[in-house]
Structures are given as structure tokens and as C-alpha cells.
Amino acid sequence: MSVNPFDLKTVVLAKHAQHVVLIHFPIALFMVAVAFDFLAQWAKSRSLAAAAYFNLLLAACFTVPVVATGLAAWQWALEGQKLKGILLMHLVLGCTSAVVIWIVFLIHLRARRHPENSLPTYRLSLEAIAVLLVGVTAHLGGFLSGVNGQG
Amino acid sequence: MSTAVLFATTFGVAFVGMFAGAGSLPPAAQQKSETTEVKIDNFSFGPAELKVTVGTTVTWTNHDDIPHTAVSTDKMFKSKVLDTDEKFSFTFSKPGTYEYFCSIHPKMTGKVVVQ
User: Fold this and answer.
1) What is the pTM of this model?
2) Taking the domains of chain A in order of start, what are their residue ranges?
3) What is the C-alpha separation between B58 and B114, in angstroms, rounded?
4) Residue B56 has pLDDT above 60, yes or no
């Protein structure tokens, strides 16, 4: 028996399905934000930097419901049992990614509030690390859900 | 050949044939074997429907690279998260139909019919 992907009610209300749906938003927003920020740095463009900032803002906001639904899935679907292996790695990397996304956003927010200070260049390294973290976390998540690999 | 010899020969052949034939009976007729293992592989339970008798212990083994669980819909049994090659066993002591699913991948479902 399989779930009809076009049956919206079943798909959205399935246990832990919300996490799987929501997670795509911060991933996409953050990746685009980093791309804009690198382009802004290279082209010295204020509008690209602004685009990066607003994408980062949305990405950071989306991490809240994503982490919440992820933790809820752990408590609800697995009843909070002790995790190990891929599930534990996904949890740890996911939380770390959310924290790093917030740090990157706060660096941009601080620079935006104090225009006399330019954005520190070390943020680009941090953003690159964050992209790597998000990528690995997403890969593990896809592996768990069966999107990557088997299924 | 006397009647007694003919009778003894016929009886002897029939007697030997009776025991010789016993070894060639189909296995199902000798012993009714039941599958008590459910293999978890490629995001599915196999067999998806298992028929067992009361008192049978069913063992789920995860042959997948992904963690899975086996949780009955009526909360009769619930495994921990099973990593690759880990097992979970449950003994069915009452007849009935027990539907179960993987709580990580709810579209994975199975059924144990206890007779």
C-alpha cells in the first residue's frame, strides 16, 4: 500500500511529513543567499548583497519550524527513543546547520544595522562551511526518507 | 509357484514399496512449516502478509541500509529503531489480524494473520 502523493490531506498530515515538506525552503533560500553573497562580494553590488540578506532572513526564519517539526517527528513517530547511526547524525548536523545559518544571518544583520562597518570577509568561509553542513544533512535526510538511494 | 509363495512375494513387494515411497512424499505433506521471519528490504516488509499459528514468534530483520521500525497499528508491539541487520521479535499469543507499519516510513505496511 502506498500513499497517493496527490492526496494532499494524507501527505501533509502523515506523521513527520511536515518536516519533509518544510525542509526544502531553508535549504533553497540559504543556498541562493550564499550564491548572492558571493556574487555581491565579487561584483561589489549593494543590490546583490540586499538580495542575499533577505534570502538569509527567510532561511533563518524557516529553520525554526523545520527544527521544531524534526524534533516533533522524533518524539511523535519514534517516541523519543535514543537515536543512533544515520538518524543521530541527521539530528546533530541539522541542529548545527540551523545554528550556523543563524550566525551567518546575524553577521549580515549586524553589518546592515551599522552601515559604517563592512561585512567581514570571514563570513564567506563560514557560509561555505554552512553550505557543506546543509548539503550533508540534506543528503542524510534524503537517504532516510528514501529519496536518495533506495526506494 | 504355490499360492503361499505368490502371496508372500506380493505382500513383501507392497511392504517394501510402502516404506520406500514414504521418503518421496512432498515436504509440505510431511511437515507444515511456517515462515516466521519478515525481511525488511528496499523499503518493504516481506512477506507483506504473513499467516502464522498462535504462539508463533515472528522476527523482523532489517536488511536495508536505512533504519526502520515495525509498529502495530493497535500498539500491540513496537520495535526500537532497527539499523542494518538488527532484529526484533514478537510472539503472537492471540488469534487475530495485526497490521503494522514503519513509523519512519509510514507507507511501509505489513500484516500478520494469527490463526
Assistant:
1) 0.75
2) 8-145
3) 11
4) yes
Q: Does B48 share its domain with B99?
A: yes
B62 and B26 share one domain: no
Q: Do B67 and A14 touch (CB under 8 A)?
A: no
What tens digit of pLDDT does each residue of A60-102 get? 999 999 999 999 989 888 888 899 899 999 999 999 999 999 9
Number of domain units in chain B: 2
pLDDT bin (cut points 50, 70, 90) of residue A148 is: low
Calculate the average pLDDT of chain A. Answer: 89
Chain A, window 59-98: residues with a beta carbon less than 8 angstroms from a chain B beta carbon: 77-79, 81, 83-87
> CA-nearest residue of chain B to A142?
B66
Q: Rounded distance, CA B108 to CA B102, Å?
A: 6
Q: Do residues B27 and B42 share a domain?
A: no
Q: What is the DSSP string of A14-64?
A: STTHHHHHHTHHHHHHHHHHHHHHHHHHHHT-HHHHHHHHHHHHHHHHHHH
Residue B16 has pLDDT above 70, yes or no: no
Which CATH number is B98's domain given? 2.60.40.420
What is the mean pLDDT of the segment spanning A124-135?
A: 97
| Bridge-based pairing state of the strands B87-91 and B57-62 | antiparallel
Same domain assignment for residues B102 and B59? yes
Nearest CB partner across the interface for A14, out of B69, B81, B106: B106
Q: What residue in B sits closest to A87 (Cα-Cα)?
A: B67
Which of chain A's residues have a Cβ under 8 Å away from the Cβ of B103? 15, 77-78
Domain range for B22: 1-31
Instruction: Locate the chain B residue with the closest alpha carbon to A4.
Output: B107
